[in-house]
């Protein structure tokens, strides 16, 4: 990650890009207010956020797929010069990734990385989660969605619309007092009984990061890095893995593709 941070920093300095948004500090606001303010500041239309990745890229930061070698980590953010890099686990479900990006965004706008001394006075993880919920599901708007009885079927429909997990919706419904603590527990229990607590139904579309791709292209075209060298920098085990994550369009050119039917059609 350190190498990617340096390289992206270097390349970004070269191109001196201009970003439509910046990453403001929201330390003076509570999570609900910060979520609302950032939406205003970034001119995010009301309703569900169509792409967390695009918002972050428009704020001049990078979203980079990264193999953490574990499914316990979804995303990590690091500061690099004038921007941030959000490393995301490409294997995590898309709804969870969006929440994790919003969570990391919470750490950044609260400048948690700047004030490690503050840790202990409050819980930065809780604060980042509260911000993520508020940013993805603004209080007044989401409250209107939680009318009548909240059932598993309703949660599925809401997940499809808001592009957040059913679990995040249950937590939010409780936050905004649309359901009681008891109902929250019942819903989680029902999900466990149905075997959908760990692996939720309703697959939402994956967000596509574009900015890092421009940088990777520059590495190859201007700095003459080979795909193999980039594989090493990015912790990828093989060119195929590298292309699967970064260049799916180049996959058809991989000769070591294991599917023989596919190979014979090359
Ligand atoms: Zn965190």
Automatic annotation (TrEMBL):
Residues 58-173 form the IrrE N-terminal-like domain. InterPro entries: IrrE_HExxH, Rad_response_metalloprotease. Pfam families: Peptidase_M78. PANTHER family: ANTITOXIN HIGA1, BLL7220 PROTEIN. This is IrrE N-terminal-like domain-containing protein. The lineage of its organism: unclassified sequences, metagenomes, ecological metagenomes.
């Amino acid at each position: 990650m350190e190498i990617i941070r340096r390289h992206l920093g270097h390349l970004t300095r070269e191109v001196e890009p201009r970003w439509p948004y910046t990453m403001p500090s929201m330390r003076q606001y509570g999570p609900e207010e910060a979520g609302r303010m950032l939406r205003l500041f970034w001119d995010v239309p009301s309703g569900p956020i169509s792409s967390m990745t695009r918002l972050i890229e428009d704020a001049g930061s990078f979203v980079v797929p990264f193999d953490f070698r574990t499914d316990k980590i979804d995303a990590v953010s690091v500061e690099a010069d004038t921007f941030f890099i959000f490393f995301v686990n490409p294997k995590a479900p898309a709804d969870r990734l969006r929440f994790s990006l919003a969570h990391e965004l919470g750490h950044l706008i609260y400048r948690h990385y700047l004030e490690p001394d503050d840790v202990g006075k409050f819980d930065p993880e809780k604060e980042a989660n509260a911000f993520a919920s508020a940013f993805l599901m603004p209080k007044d708007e989401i409250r209107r969605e939680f009318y009548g009885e909240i059932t598993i079927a309703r949660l599925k429909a809401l997940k499809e619309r808001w592009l957040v997990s059913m679990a995040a919706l249950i937590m939010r419904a409780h936050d905004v007092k649309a359901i009681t603590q008891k109902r929250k527990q019942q819903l989680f229990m029902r999900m466990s009984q149905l075997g959908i607590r760990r692996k939720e139904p309703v697959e939402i579309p994956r967000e596509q990061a574009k900015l890092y791709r421009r940088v990777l292209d520059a590495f190859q075209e201007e700095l003459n890095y080979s795909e193999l060298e980039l594989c090493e920098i990015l912790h990828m085990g093989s060119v195929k893995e590298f292309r699967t994550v970064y260049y799916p369009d180049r996959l058809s050119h991989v000769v070591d593709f294991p599917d023989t039917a596919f190979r014979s059609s090359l």
